[in-house]
Predict the structure.
Amino acid sequence: MKGFGKYVIFLGSLFVRRESFSTYYKLVLEECMQIGVKSAFLFILVSTFIGAVTTVQTAFNMVNPLIPRFVISQVVREMTILELAPTVMALIYAGKIGSSMAGGLGTMRITEQIDALEVMGVNSSSYLVLPKIIASMMMYPMLVIISGVCSMVGGYLVGTFAQLLTPTEFISGIRFEFNPTEISVALVKSFVFAFLISSISSFKGYFTKGGALEVGIATTEAVTTSVIAILLADYFIVDLIL
Amino acid sequence: MIKINHISKRFGDKVVLENISAEFEKGKTNLIIGSSGTGKSVLLKCIVGLIHPDTGNVFYNLRNFTDADKEVKSEIRREIGMLFQGGALFDSKNVEENVMFPLEVLTQMHADEKRERANLCLKRVGLENANKKAVSEISGGMKKRVGIARAIVNNPNYLFCDEPNSGLDPQTSILIDELIHEITHELDITTLVVTHDMNSVMGIGENIIFLYQGHKLWEGNHSEITDSGIEELDDFVFANKVMSKMRKTNS
């Protein structure tokens, strides 16, 4: 509970003694490049393969001839939109971006760069962390959308090349009884997960004490705590909205 | 002028600073000396506000810094320049950007003016050709000089240096000491240096306080330090072989 209280106070500190809008604008753009653009390749690669593998495995389990083949792509769609794109990608995001945030801030802490900012009269938490959280909440939903599309494209390519189902069957399955609320759920999840990962990882990194070993520990804790928070939030969001 | 009144600080059961009072005058190079782990850096951090003391106050030109609200603290901090032990340069920025940084966040200057001012400060510390270099490309001594340039770029009234000679060879140490001393007189600022280097003490110590196990044991200048008659200070001063030889020769 003490840690949670410290986390809440930390979040509050992001909004006091803020810098100018132009400063944040520049910092957010830099973070967007770091977080979004430089992560896009990994997300495209992982989601394409997950979509492809899900298609093959679903087809492998569909042994009943009475079940139409388009159900395969329907299953891929449901899994992709509800879980794979927002949640599984969030776990990868926590590993890649969360650890990088915690490691970067932890290193800045132990090399006194954060102290240097404070001595200059800059609110270091607001200057360093707020742009990361804003950029994360802007870029992660986009990455989730890209992942969703890539996953279905991966499923389509493998499903049709391996002749598991025809292109028409795949498209029919993707469209069959589609509920647009699922997209809203995925986007709500992506905003919440982005906030949790960026704020928890920054929190862990910002309060690092000691040396290189402690930076490593903070990084590991950042990923572990973020993953637990993602799984809990995932359950609550699904329970509330669906 | 900086005045500290009855500063005490403890971490858990360990008393790090006990009732320290002192005055650091304007236009002088003030030194806080003592062995490792004696509370020098903690005292410096209390003075600049990175650590809040348990008791006591710090005054900057009669303005109470310790109990001030965040706005006043921020205002005072804008008059402070600090050189950290490891330089604390921002890895993501090059040398010039590091020096320009205080101007970016503290002033409304035009970009060209900022660059001009940063390059002037880099020239002052003898690094006019290193402005585009990455932090990882420069040596320890250069990092310290970039740190000094960054600390003075905003025309501070107060300059703090935390062990400016640590990790440097004796020649570079002397250069850094001389640079700090010259800048103090040139800009007529209050400079406070934390050190345990006897070369610095004898070279630039105009006003020195000696800390021992969290207590202030002595205050004076570099010409008085060898005749203090305080055993702990003598142990510290004459631990160096050269100083020890000098003592034997004199006696």
User: Anything to note?
Assistant: Residues 91-155 of chain B form one domain. The interface with chain A takes residues 45, 48-50, 70, 73-75, 77-78, 80, 82, 84-86, 88-91, 101-102, 104-106, 160 of chain B (CB under 8 Å).
